[in-house]
From TrEMBL:
NCBIfam families recorded: L21
Subunit structure as annotated in this protein's UniProt entry: Part of the 50S ribosomal subunit. Contacts protein L20.
Highest taxon above the source species: Bacteria
HAMAP family: Ribosomal_bL21 (MF_01363)
Organism: Georgenia deserti
Nucleus keyword on record: no
Name assigned to this protein: Large ribosomal subunit protein bL21
Record InterPro entries: bL21-like, bL21-like_sf, Ribosomal_bL21
Keywords of the record: Ribonucleoprotein, Ribosomal protein, RNA-binding, rRNA-binding
Stated role: This protein binds to 23S rRNA in the presence of protein L20.
Keyword Ribonucleoprotein found: yes
Family: Belongs to the bacterial ribosomal protein bL21 family.
Entry's Gene Ontology cellular component terms: ribosome
């Protein structure tokens, strides 16, 4: 592994994602229009051999991303069935998601 690798672990949409500059990630729905810039909360920063995890040091770090588009996740099929009663219920669900492109880690 080269010594100039820079990436961050950020909290985005209820989950943690490993991102570096230029990455495209899909997270839970965020408010904003395509082209808007948002700031993600860093949890850890790796800059070559240096690993930053302290809250005071991470307060100085900013991870910016641009909203590419809003989209929907895969369809989840929900089926309920009770034997011998004729009860059946079928339902589908698709979660709302946002595609982000990471533009900077400073």
């Amino acid at each position: 592994m080269s010594s100039n690798v820079v990436y961050a672990i950020v909290k985005a949409g209820g989950r943690q994602e490993k991102v570096s500059v230029g990455d495209v990630v899909v997270v839970d729905r965020l408010n904003g229009d395509p082209g808007d810039s948002i700031e993600l909360e860093p949890i850890m920063l790796v800059d070559g051999e240096k690993v930053t995890t302290g809250a005071d040091d991470l307060a100085k770090v900013t991870v910016t991303a641009e909203i590419v588009r809003a989209e929907k996740g895969p369809k989840i099929s929900i089926m309920k069935f009770k034997n011998k009663t004729g009860y059946r219920r079928r339902q589908g669900y698709r979660s709302s998601r946002t595609r982000l492109k990471v533009t900077g880690i400073k």
